[in-house]
Write a structure and sequence with these properties.
Radius of gyration: 34 Å
Distance between the termini: 20 Å
Strand content: 15-25%
Structural class: alpha+beta
Oligomer: single chain
Shape: elongated
Largest sheet: 10 strands, mixed
Number of helices: 24
Length: 843
């Protein structure tokens, strides 16, 4: 039997080569994404950076810790407190101390373009001795108006346009904007961009003490801190050794960056695995279905059903083992370039690289082998059941019937996909807007439609070819009949197109619709004429700008602060919610919030506005929360906002966010006021303080509906990997299908058809199949987008569906071109041989 198997493989080398290529590429994609995913499981170890030369660092804790019945729960504080003055005084008795202050600044060369300049962090110069910063040129700042800036090595050359000693720069601080002289430079670091001021000026700009460098014994420091804060409830950390890293700017940036990369690669790996399994199983099943006449002949010659199945499985093993091994090699070679692209494009941090893990290769190998076996399982079982007397008749024509098991499995998958959609709409409409949901849900529908392809192909073919079949000439008619009667061939070729269109339309359409919904929601809720926002996540607007904006006649001004509150739900889950600290009267003049119950105007220092996602959301009910600085308070719910697209957060008063700076100002022109005068005064205030003033439309265009660059590139990575593979699979399957029809093409030539006519027919059939796959993919995408539209309606967001017609058209066109080329080239090769030599060749 083994000899017969090898002879069959030699005779059908095109079919087995196609199966080998499909499996090798699929395993390669799984291995490459798996290796990249494995590299995200552990961040590199870093020691202290900013305070590397400090013996002891004392600072207020930045972590909220809450005890629960199942252990301690933690959350990062949005607004950590300052080091109390009494603690600083007590520690000064133990030895020399240096006060560190950190405040947002930005700077740009005087005479440069208007704008906010480069975002940086301001510090007093005295703390530089405890950090890696050392003067590379110039001297330390001694008086107000002098600064030392961090400069990258390549910027020290004056010809490169960098800042140098003696330059005048315009620096924006919390106190406003002013021109200062650069008296020194230090080498730049990768954890922050620093600007150093004279100690006295830094204390004026930011009076609070953010950290203390203490030159004393750590044990004595801890005892002094405990004595100083006993009974005050203040949390103070004493950091030594590697713990000093907790005082670095964004100490968790490596692990947080890996979380984002892990989520991206996890999604990419899931989709890659799904696409690979789908295409490989379809290709192997098609390869077996192509040989039904051969199996019929073997059954007629006396082969048993068991022998047929054993032959098929032996062939699958002989192809799958080397193909999976080759795929692992491809994955190992392709993973480093994938990681390098992610680093170059900014998706992954600069240190990201493929590690020495091998388990992704083992996983990819055995996945490929199992998928190949699964792909031939059903087809081989059906081939083994062919009766000898029915073999030749069965092999001659696809009747389009499906076994009950396929009907049942397809129905289960379609019901599961639609059922999950209905369930989420009924219970949690916001779930449909989450990436994990709208990426995974189409998979069930794709497989369900693919399983029903044998019964859907024939009516769809007749629909697509209704007009071409009625045109003069036989091409349209023959294309219709060949595609409709070759059900398995048509379904196998349409499968890559189905998955391409379904994934692309679902992902691109969903993200575009969600972005449009967020933009619509923001435009509806913001009634201000101008929006001024601080740059960066922890930026602050200059106090002089806020003061001048509030004094503009005819302007309604709302200055708000970013903060956060945490709540313990069900006694065990510490949930953090982003919040804004606002004056309710000023907020009402510049916004229209989606209130479900209560009144935002009732917000006071003892109240809180929550949204419908909160477990406790009854107006008048009291809820225990922890504020951004860690204080525990009990507040009264005064209003509940609708969930919307997820951007409707929590509102408190400024008194409940004491450490948060003003980072956004909304300005509305009052009725009857001179809009031109308000505009001029506001822009004058912005120019004087180096603050960018945007109209509402400009602000919306800048912040909505665009996705972040990392999100866009991540989506491009996910789709790029999947669509590249499906494109190759489409060409591969068409080559297999066309090469198997040399006998049919020879018969057409013998009946009088010319070579161009035969090639036109082959191209027409390929286009018909692409159209069928596109319609099936569009049905999957349509169901997903309609479900999303329903979710937005239930969330009270009135926004239109956004269908990426351009992208979809390009993908369908690319699939059509690829299909035509992949079908015509092997047909052209076959037509080079005299028709009489191929006549009668069928299998």
């Amino acid at each position: 039997m083994l000899r017969l198997t090898l002879q069959g493989m030699r005779a059908r080398w095109v079919t087995f080569t196609g199966s080998f290529v499909a499996l090798a590429l699929g395993v390669g994609l799984i291995a490459a994404t798996g290796l990249a995913l494995a590299a995200t499981f552990q961040a590199p170890h870093r020691g202290p950076e900013r305070f590397a030369a400090a013996p002891v660092v004392v600072r207020a804790t930045d972590t909220l810790r809450v005890s629960t019945p199942i252990g301690e729960r933690t959350q990062r504080l949005a607004d950590p407190r300052a080091v109390p003055a009494e603690v600083a005084a007590e520690l000064a008795r133990l030895g020399r101390t240096v006060e560190d202050r950190t405040f947002p600044v930005s700077y740009a060369s005087v005479g440069g373009e208007d704008g906010e300049g480069a975002a940086a962090a301001g510090h007093p110069w005295s703390v530089a001795a405890a950090t890696p910063y050392r003067l590379t040129d110039g001297r330390a700042p001694r008086t107000p108006g002098e600064v030392v800036v961090a400069v990258a090595t390549r910027e020290r050359d004056r010809s490169g346009g960098g800042v140098a000693v003696g330059d005048r720069v315009r620096v924006v601080t919390p106190a406003g904007a002013d021109s200062r002289t650069v008296v020194g430079t230090v080498a730049a670091t990768d954890f922050e961009t620093a600007v150093f001021f004279a100690d006295a000026e830094a204390a004026q700009l930011s009076p609070r003490i953010d950290a203390l460098v203490v030159h004393a014994d750590a044990t004595a420091v801890r005892k002094a801190v405990r004595d100083a804060v006993r009974g005050t409830g203040s949390g103070i950390d004493v950091l030594t050794g590697d713990e000093r890293r907790r005082a670095d700017p964004d100490p968790d940036r490596d692990s947080e960056a890996l979380v984002a990369v892990n989520a991206l690669l996890g999604t990419a790996a899931g989709i890659t695995c799904f696409v690979s399994v789908f295409v490989v199983a379809s290709t192997f099943a098609f390869a077996v279905a192509q040989r039904r006449r051969e199996f019929g002949l073997l059954r007629t010659a006396g082969a048993t059903a068991r022998q047929i199945r054993r032959t098929v499985f032996a062939e699958a093993v002989l192809v799958a083992v080397p193909a999976s091994a080759a795929g692992c090699l491809l994955g190992a070679v392709g993973a480093p370039p994938l990681a390098a692209w992610m680093v170059d494009s900014g998706v992954a941090p600069s240190w990201f690289a493929i590690g020495d893990q091998t388990w992704p290769l083992h996983t990819a190998f055995w996945t490929g082998l199992c998928v190949a076996m699964a792909g031939v399982l059903t087809s081989s079982w059906r081939a083994g059941r062919i009766k000898p007397t029915e073999a030749l008749r069965e092999a001659a024509l696809d009747n389009g019937t499906m076994p009950p098991s396929r009907w049942l499995l397809g129905a289960l998958l379609l019901l599961a996909g639609l059922g999950l959609l209905v369930w989420s709409l009924a219970t949690d409409p916001g779930e449909a807007l989450k990436r994990k949901t709208y990426i995974t849900r189409p998979m069930l529908l794709i497989v369900g439609f693919a399983l029903y392809a044998p019964v859907l192909v024939s009516p769809l073919v007749r629909l697509v070819t209704w007009l071409p079949a009625r045109l003069p000439g036989a091409t349209g008619l023959l294309a219709r009949e060949n595609a409709a009667t070759g059900v398995r061939r048509t379904a196998a070729v349409a499968a890559p197109v189905l998955i391409t269109v379904a994934l692309a339309a679902s992902l691109l359409g969903t993200t575009a619709t969600i972005n449009e919904a967020k933009a619509t929601e923001a435009a509806t809720q913001t009634t201000a004429d101008y929006v001024v926002a601080a740059p960066g996540e922890k930026g602050a607007l200059p106090a002089p700008f806020v003061t001048r904006a509030r004094s503009i006649p005819g302007a309604a001004v709302s200055a708000s602060r970013s903060t956060a509150v945490s709540v313990l739900e069900e006694g065990v889950a510490l949930v953090r919610s982003e919040a804004r600290a606002v004056d309710p009267a000023a907020l009402a003049a510049v916004s229209r919030l989606p209130v479900a119950s209560g009144r935002v105007a009732d917000l006071d220092d003892g109240g809180i506005v929550v949204n419908e996602e909160w477990l406790t959301r009854t107006v008048g009910q009291r809820v225990r929360v922890w504020l951004g600085d860690g204080r525990e308070v009990t507040l009264r719910i005064v209003a509940v906002l609708r969930t919307g697209t997820g951007g409707n957060g929590v509102y408190v008063t400024p008194r409940n966010a004491p450490g948060a700076p003003v980072d956004r100002v909304d300005v509305a022109v009052r009725d009857g006021a001179d809009a031109t005068a308000v505009d001029a005064a506001l822009r004058e205030a912005g120019a004087a303080t180096r603050t960018t003033v945007l109209t509402k439309d400009e602000w919306l265009a800048r912040s909505h509906p665009r996705s972040s660059e990392s999100t866009r590139l991540g989506l491009l990575l996910i789709l790029g990997i999947a669509l590249l593979y499906t494109g190759i699979a489409l060409a591969n399957t068409l080559v297999m299908a066309t090469s198997d029809r040399v006998g049919d093409l020879a018969v057409l030539r013998l009946t009088g058809a010319t070579k161009p006519q035969v090639l036109r027919l082959v191209a027409a059939e390929a286009l018909v199949v692409v159209a069928v796959g596109s319609l099936l993919g569009a049905a999957v995408a349509g169901l997903n987008l309609l479900g999303l539209r329903g979710a937005l309606a239930l969330l009270s967001v009135r926004s239109p569906l956004v269908v990426p017609w351009g992208g979809l058209g390009a993908m369908v066109a690319a699939s059509a071109v690829l299909a035509v080329v992949a079908a015509v080239v092997p047909a052209l090769t076959a037509l080079r041989t005299r028709p009489v030599e191929h006549a009668g060749t069928r299998e």
